[in-house]
Amino acid sequence: MLDSPEAMACLSLERIETAGPSMAEIEQAAINNMAARLSQVVLRGDDLASDISMLVLDGSYESSLLLVPALWDDVEAVAGPVAVAIPARDLIVFAPLSQP
After folding, report:
1. In this predicted structure, what is the pLDDT of residue 97?
2. Residue 25: its pLDDT value, please?
3. Distance from C-alpha of 46 to C-alpha of 77, rounded to nearest angstrom
4. Which of 7, 18, 23, 37 is deepest in the core (most CB within 10 A)?
5. Backbone angles phi, psi at 10, to 5 degrees
6. 78 and 48 in contact (C-beta within 8 Å)?
7. What is the rounded CA–CA span in Å between residue 17 and residue 13?
8. 43/50 Cα distance (integer angstroms)
9. Residue 57 CB-half CA count within 13 A
């Protein structure tokens, strides 16, 4: 995804391959970009350790939060292992595996 102040555009694999950076560099840049936005993430849910919770960001990149290991390390430190569902790019929900 190429993101500018005016628009977002999907990049073809061919364009990515000819752009210069490697896939690993692009992935790391994506992780860094999402990590830089963690302070903007809002957690919806009453009890992280026992309820279904939702992460809210900007309506476009919530699903990309899955890329940020530090976020999930923090979630699992409180809730234990979690199951994550991403039904749409703007919706990411999770719940502790300990819940039925």
Report:
1. 92
2. 86
3. 17
4. 37
5. -80, 140
6. yes
7. 6
8. 14
9. 19
